[in-house]
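quick one, 212 residues, struct below
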Amino acid sequence: MFYLAADCQELLMNALLSSARNALLAGIVLALAAIAVGIAVERVDALGFTSFVLRAIHVVAAIIWVGMIWFVNFVQHPAVVAADDHGRATLFRLVVPHVATIFRHTSHLVLLSGALLLLPTGYLLSPWVFGAQFHMSMTKALLLWGAAAGAVAMWVFVHMIIWPNLQIVLGEKAANAEAKAAARAKVALYARANLLLAIPVTVLMVAAAHLF
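---
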């Protein structure tokens, strides 16, 4: 009986962890199951549930986006600089485009979920959502809007500067060697600018939600 249970456990683990996709799906199912149990035990109103869903999406997307910023600055860029021509070409073909796709799309998701989250949390149109008696701390509002401004700047850097120049580096746009070198330098510069902003934006967001 013990061996049968151990075999079943091993088969289950192998099935769940056979790929990153399976592990991700299993994690999502586990999280949803835990939330469903919580909702079954405690009553949750529609506004609270909407706020929770948007916040969960916002937080997960932000983790991925900021994680990619750290990866680009501390792993990918040093690897590209240290690699020989063959290694650099391999990175540009197999790694960099996938990283770019992830951080571009997650940046959209962070901004969209964050903008929608302003409504159920009272930062935007609060008299219509909560009534005229609702009061928002000025300190809390300033922290949130400062972080939001930083996040918008990061989004602009990604889509208006980093991505167009990265397309030149990857050969998706025609350019000579000099233009490619200039594009690489600009990508590295604004990747570091996003790293600089990622820290205060994250801290201010957390402070606005939990400090005051």
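Helices lie at 2-16, 20-41, 46-82, 85-94, 96-117, 126-130, 138-169, 177-210.
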